[in-house]
């Protein structure tokens, strides 16, 4: 599959992309990153601080196989449902801050339908080759740059017990690592919850 080949290719230069940040993950059994997102149930609910919308977006974008690849070694920054609500409100109008999860998911699907490939681009911008634990992320020099599978970069600015992730949209707020959602371990990498959706360009 095209995305699986992309993961394999980027793994070859993962050490360069995250120099000084990560060591290769040992092969382990257990749920993959895709399994962890699938466990969200594939629907919507009233909990804005889980990852239902991202899980659905991964399926729509055709990236489930990439996150299910047992040979991958990835770090995924996962925006919660509230993060997608903020994104939709920014793109379509402030009144979406009062919408329910199902409405927000529908708008995300509409975005993909109107501009195919958008979700794939955005989600791959949240994935970095190599496993980066929170201890490592919080101890790097301020402004350390990560290269994502999308090809763009994210800069990491540690602040005490969390870190700011600076994306490519200079006009909007950047996400923080969510302390209660760090180091979600998978057999093919690690996931960290973030407060907003990372933007690969000026949206």
Automatic annotation (TrEMBL):
Extract the SUPFAM superfamilies matched here.
FAS1 domain
Q: Where is the signal peptide?
A: 1-27
Q: According to its record, what are the GO cellular component terms? A: extracellular space
Specify the superkingdom.
Answer: Bacteria
What is the protein name for this chain? Fasciclin domain-containing protein
Q: Which InterPro entries match?
A: Adhesion/Biosynth-related, FAS1_dom_sf, FAS1_domain
Give UniProt keywords alphabetically.
Answer: Signal
Question: Which source organism?
Answer: Actinomarinicola tropica
Annotated FAS1 domain residues:
38-198
């Amino acid at each position: 599959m095209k995305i699986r080949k992309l993961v394999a290719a980027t793994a070859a230069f993962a050490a360069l992309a995250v120099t000084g940040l990560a060591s290769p993950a040992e092969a382990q059994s257990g749920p993959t990153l895709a399994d962890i997102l699938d466990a969200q149930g594939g629907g919507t609910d009233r909990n804005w601080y889980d990852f239902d919308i991202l899980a659905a977006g991964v399926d729509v974008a055709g990236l489930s196989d990439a996150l299910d690849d047992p040979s991958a070694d990835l770090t995924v920054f996962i925006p919660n449902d509230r993060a997608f609500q903020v994104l939709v409100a920014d793109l379509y109008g402030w009144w979406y801050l009062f919408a329910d999860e199902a409405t927000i998911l529908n708008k995300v699907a509409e975005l993909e339908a109107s501009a195919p490939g958008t979700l794939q681009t955005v989600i791959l911008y949240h994935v970095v080759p190599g496993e980066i634990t929170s201890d490592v992320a919080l101890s790097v020099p301020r402004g350390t740059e990560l290269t994502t599978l999308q090809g763009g970069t994210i800069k990491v600015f540690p602040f005490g017990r969390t870190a700011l992730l600076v994306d490519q949209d200079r006009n909007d707020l950047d996400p923080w690592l969510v302390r209660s959602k760090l180091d979600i371990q998978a057999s093919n990498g690690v996931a960290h919850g973030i407060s907003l959706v990372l933007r690969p360009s000026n949206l």
